[in-house]
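Predict the 3D structure for this chain.
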Amino acid sequence: MDGRFPPQMLPPGSPSAGVPEAPPGTIFVLGPEGGYAVPPRRYTLLFGRDRDGVHVPVGVDDPTVSRRHGVFTCTGTAGDWWIVNTGNLPIELPDGALMLTGHKRIVEPGYTPLVINSSKRRSHLMEVRLVGEDDRHPRSTSGAETVDPETVYELAPQERLVLTALARRYLQGHDAFPLPLAWEDTARLVNASPYTTKSWTFRSVANTVEDVRERLHRRGVRGLLREEVGEPVGSTLSVNLIRELLKTATLTAQDLELLAEEE
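Done. Predicted structure below.
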């Protein structure tokens, strides 16, 4: 433990852009009213609606948020922090996964926004930053040229055309909760494109999408195989594939230019 950085309260703000100099393993947790920072040591850090009974108040004016909605715990100086949901409402993670009551998960180094979605159609943000070894010598890139995302998957031209059609509703941005097109509709769009090189059927479209899913699975992407998601599968595999391609900017709205203009 580094005695030069004791546990301390934090003013309102955000740890997303950086944090004060602190030893690796230090956790910063902030809500709308401020927060708390703790170096790696045996500690239990509480968050929730009870402003006077927790370290980090969140959702203080929303009775659907639990008074003590969760805890961050560290068992020693190794710097491993865990979050446990002790509240009634789920805690949403950046990848959309939900931590339900009793769920426990390790906190990864870096910045992690957590959201408690209220049944009153409100969302309460709590921001977490765990200092890693790379934070000792942060390098500013504010004046550098923007570079492409580190993970951009290679797609053959016809694969890109098929996936653009499959993900058309996502790329258009009109729907709040888009879904992939059906195989038949995807084949119809691909066949109408001036860039298609053959006649497509629902089966050839499905096989092409399956080939891409398996290729990304071999790259370590989870949720792309039937055995990983369980039954009923429905459109889950296509949804997970599209989300991965969008998150990595492998597919962008510019790809819609591959599709023919609708009448």
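The chain has a mean pLDDT of 88.
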